[in-house]
Design a protein that fits this description.
By secondary structure, the protein is mostly helical. The protein is built from seven helices and two strands. A two-stranded antiparallel sheet has the order 1-2. The chain is globular.
């Protein structure tokens, strides 16, 4: 199991353009999160185009990833990270559950890609902590049961486009403005 986690993390870091393979670069270069949002939208679109995706006979449990911006802003970055970790862990479990039930080639391929992306973000956030401090114990994210495969992709897109993007934005305020990340766009340095 640990080898699989290491391979996923390595794959994710190799997926990032050379020169951006650090948490600070991921946070400080806004183009990367926009790229991942675009990929999430593309996966959602491709899954919707799969013919005859089955309704899952055993529902999967998905995190409810909506949030109120004012409440989100009032949380510490570590609390936000823990919340996203819980959401991602639940989502990865839901994707794995759906994978066991979907045998149709198109749907199975899209779920495999989603599993890879969601697992990569989960591993990245588990591996790197941007703040020192105690971790909050346990996970109990708000959740819902779902039998429609396309909703799994919608949930992932909403998580990346919402909590994850705002989390990276909040981290960038601290990391990038302190000179640790070289600014929001590394190509503009020295100009």
């Amino acid at each position: 199991m640990e080898l699989n986690r290491l391979l996923l993390l390595t794959s994710f870091l190799l997926h990032i353009e050379e020169g951006h393979a650090s948490p600070t670069r991921l946070v400080c270069d806004n183009r990367l999160i926009q790229k991942y949002i675009g990929e999430a939208k593309d996966m959602e679109k491709r899954a919707g185009q799969c013919q005859a995706l089955p309704t899952l006979s055993c529902p999967v449990v998905l995190p409810l990833v909506d949030f109120r911006l004012q409440q989100w802003k009032s949380k510490s970055n570590e609390t936000k990270r823990q919340e996203i970790l819980c959401d991602l862990a639940l989502l990865v479990g839901a994707v794995a559950g759906a994978q066991r039930q979907v045998t149709q080639e198109c749907g199975a391929m899209q779920l495999s890609q989603l599993y890879h992306h969601a697992s990569s973000f989960l591993l990245l956030l588990q591996t790197f902590s941007w703040e020192a401090g105690p971790s909050e114990p346990g996970c109990s994210p708000r959740s819902m049961e779902q039998t429609h495969v396309t909703i799994i992709f919608l949930t992932y897109r909403q998580l990346v486009q919402g909590k994850l993007r705002f989390f990276f934005h909040d981290l960038a305020k601290n990391l990038c403005n302190q000179g640790q990340g070289g600014g929001r766009n590394p190509q503009c340095r020295g100009r």
